[in-house]
Structure formats: structure tokens, C-alpha cells
Design a protein that fits this description.
Length: 249
């Protein structure tokens, strides 16, 4: 996954990840969502969330593997959310916060399990950005997100993450965010680091996806928006494809 992301970055290709929150996946319509994802060329599934009440991640991963060849990447909220049957895990260090549990504590607990698993580990600098209202992740993580209008704070945080060896940066306004991460902030982080940048949270229209891609996001993540409006999946997939076609012309 890391290689795919790095190669994409070098070729200036963009990728589209669909977030599957185990609490929200509708099993009746899930086969359709998987088929649509294959048909429209979704690059990754992110599986997880900060609070999971229904332990369905393994069923979701099994279905992904059965019906698609799209990688299932864990997006865990804590060390209980590790499913060895996934393809990879974003090993998130919440570098925008000052909660030691989410910077290193959970990682210590998870390390022996991760070492034993076949999961590809993607060391990720996870940055929460203030989004207009309290999101589940800001509450559960007990951290203060980076202010929406402080791109330089995000840039310095990403720089520090890169210097510490983190290989991917994830700018997240949180699921269902009122305001997505601003293009100014994405551009500032893009200028500051050489790692791939994942951007998510509140991207619920092609217009917002386009703005994130143009500002320098390498991967855009959409969850809530597709749950609300399934047509968004083909629309954003098409946008990402058009973006990539333009680059290769
Ligand atoms: C949240 O980045 C993801 O962690 C996606 O957010 O559900 O708002 O698309 P949405």
C-alpha cells in the first residue's frame, strides 16, 4: 500500500478511498456498494472508525475479499480494532493531539499482535482539524483539533511527523464534518512534506473533492457522503479518474 501511495505521488496520480464504518454498513445494500466500487475503480477501502459498537469488521473484510480485489485497510480507533484478515493498517499516531495514549500508548499494546500479523503497517501521522462542530473522533480522542484557519500549525505538525519517520499524513476533519479541511491547509501541508497526503471528513460533494485534490491531496476519503447519497461514489470516482487522465495527457 505504501508503495502504491508513493508511486501514485511520484506519478501525480490521485486515489479514492471509501470509508466503511462497521456501525453504518447496511448489509442488505453492501454487495451493491462493493460491485459499484469495483465498477467505478475505487482504490482502497478504509475499514474502521473511532467508536465501533457493532463488531462487524471481519465480516466486512471477508466480503471485500470475496467480491473485489480492492485492498481493505484498517483505520482503527484503538488497539481493539485490529483485524488480522485485513490487507494493511494505518498505524495512526494522533500527532495533532497531546494525548499520549493515541501518540504511543495504544501502539505499545498493539505491537506484539501487529508484529505477528501479516498486515502491512503504514505509519501514519494523523491530524484532526477543527470542523465546525464536535465530531465523535474529537470527543473520543480527548484532543484539541488543529484550528480550521491555521494552515501553518498543520504544516509544522506534518513536518514534525515526517521528521519522526511517519510515512503518510492524514488530515481529517472527522466523519460528518460540517467543514472539510480547507484547501489552504492542504496546500500548506503539501508544500511542507514529501509524504503522500490523505484527506477526509465532510467531503460530501464533487466540488469539495475537487478542491481537496487541486490543493494537493493524494487520497480522498469519503464515508458519510456516500451513506447519505450513493450517487456520490460514481461521481467522485469519475472526478478522480478525470484528474488522473488530465495528468497523464
Ligand atoms: C473520517 O475521513 C473520514 O475519518 C471520512 O469522513 O465520513 O465525513 O466522509 P466522512
Amino acid at each position: 500500500i505504501r508503495t502504491i501511495l508513493q508511486d501514485n505521488l511520484q506519478e501525480r496520480r490521485k486515489a479514492f478511498a471509501v470509508l466503511l464504518d462497521p456501525d453504518k454498513v447496511e448489509f442488505s445494500s453492501f454487495p451493491f456498494l462493493l460491485a459499484e466500487s469495483v465498477r467505478h475503480g475505487v482504490d482502497f477501502f478504509f475499514v474502521g472508525g473511532s467508536l465501533i459498537t457493532r463488531y462487524a469488521a471481519d465480516d466486512i473484510i471477508k466480503a471485500i475479499h470475496e467480491h473485489t480485489s480492492i485492498p481493505a485497510i484498517l483505520f482503527p480507533g484503538n488497539s481493539l480494532h485490529i483485524e488480522p484478515s485485513a490487507d494493511a493498517i494505518l498505524l495512526l499516531s494522533l500527532i495533532s493531539g497531546r494525548n499520549p495514549e493515541l501518540l504511543i500508548g495504544q501502539h505499545v499494546v498493539a505491537a506484539p499482535l501487529l508484529k505477528r500479523s501479516q498486515l502491512e503497517i503504514v505509519p501514519t501521522g494523523y491530524m484532526l482539524v477543527e470542523s465546525g462542530r464536535a465530531t465523535t473522533v474529537s470527543y473520543i480522542s480527548n484532543t484539541t483539533p488543529i484550528p480550521h484557519d491555521k494552515p501553518s500549525v498543520a504544516a509544522c505538525t506534518a513536518m514534525a511527523g515526517e521528521l519522526l519517520g511517519l510515512q503518510v499524513m492524514y488530515l481529517d476533519a472527522g466523519s460528518g464534518a460540517q467543514k472539510p479541511v480547507s484547501p489552504e491547509m492542504i496546500a500548506a501541508v503539501r508544500k511542507a512534506v514529501d509524504t503522500p497526503i490523505i484527506v477526509g471528513g465532510g467531503i460530501n460533494s464533487p466540488f469539495k473533492a475537487q478542491a481537496a485534490l487541486e490543493a494537493g491531496a493524494d487520497v480522498i476519503v469519503v464515508g458519510n457522503g456516500i451513506e447519505q447519497n450513493p450517487d456520490l461514489l460514481p461521481e467522485i470516482a469519475q472526478l478522480v479518474r478525470a484528474f488522473n487522465d488530465k495528468v497523464t495527457v
